[in-house]
Amino acid sequence: MRSAEPSVTPPQPSATDAVVLPTTRDTAIWGYFPTDRAPVLSVDSGTVVTVDAVNQFGVPSPEGPVAYFERLGVPAGEVLPELAEIAKNPRPAGSSGHVITGPVEVRGAEPGDVLQIDIIDLSPRVPYGVNSSGPGSGVCGDLLDTASVRLLRLDESGSHYDFGHGIQIPFKPFAGIMAVAPPTSAGFVSANPPDRWGGNIDFRDLVAGTTLYLPVFQPGGMFYVGDTHGAQGHGEVNQTAVEHSLTFTARFTVRKDLTLRWPRAESDTYVWCMGIDADLDVALEIAVKEAVGHLVEATGGALTVADAYALCSIAVDFVVAEAVDGNKAVVAYVPKSLTTARG
């Protein structure tokens, strides 16, 4: 596997340099990843794109999005007008309740390549988000007897949500769903469970300034984004995060020098190796093997498999990033210092 440590990304351009993709009835679909959908935008490798994404909350409500949010105390003028139009899109059987935008074709991407997504900016489109749970929801489906829906507003500075009880939740926006089109052999693919093509990974640390790498399965990569969040704990244990409509800006680069089997990501401090499976034990095993492989390859074999396995046990944290969407996602936090140290 040619998956040496991802190279340092070039300086980030500003969001003002981006091609803008609005989310409309034509550019949005309910939650699945078709392999035959025509691209809603085609760009060259290296292009910066801003997606005016929407979170799905309120869209499927029988009373309509405006009435749904008004019932939570949101004035009609603060409800995104496109939500009502998107709600008219037919929802295919088997799709999730997410609203996703795409696909974005990145010209030159071919199966076997890697699509590099440099996340530049995430900004709120509205000043509020929603967290919702209830009977049967999350990892403790028997914990609640009635539905619990709470509106969380950003403070005037935009730095945090006021939860109540004097508790402030920092605003740390990210996109819960980032995916490329899956292989055709996968058949109909819901956007709910994450998998090798990314999808609903809900990895909260993929904030502005980080980079996601996804293996490519279809010509053009065919990138989808949605399920944007303003804050979330690892695991998303009550079923939802702070579900918040955001603008998402990223640069898309085709990498023909990399080969990956599973999604991978990085920050200035860590390389994040991911394992995904319906069985948490299997997801952990995949993440460990991905981390071991990375450590060996990034050091050109200076670290043996035994060295890397030991380091994974004593110096790498394995975190359950997503626990409630069918497949579980385990992320290995591999410090970059482990592959730069020499002695």
Automatic annotation (TrEMBL):
<protein>
    <submittedName>
        <fullName>Acetamidase/formamidase</fullName>
    </submittedName>
</protein>
<dbReference type="Pfam" id="PF03069">
    <property type="entry name" value="FmdA_AmdA"/>
</dbReference>
<dbReference type="GO" id="GO:0016811">
    <property type="term" value="F:hydrolase activity, acting on carbon-nitrogen (but not peptide) bonds, in linear amides"/>
</dbReference>
<dbReference type="InterPro" id="IPR004304">
    <property type="entry name" value="FmdA_AmdA"/>
</dbReference>
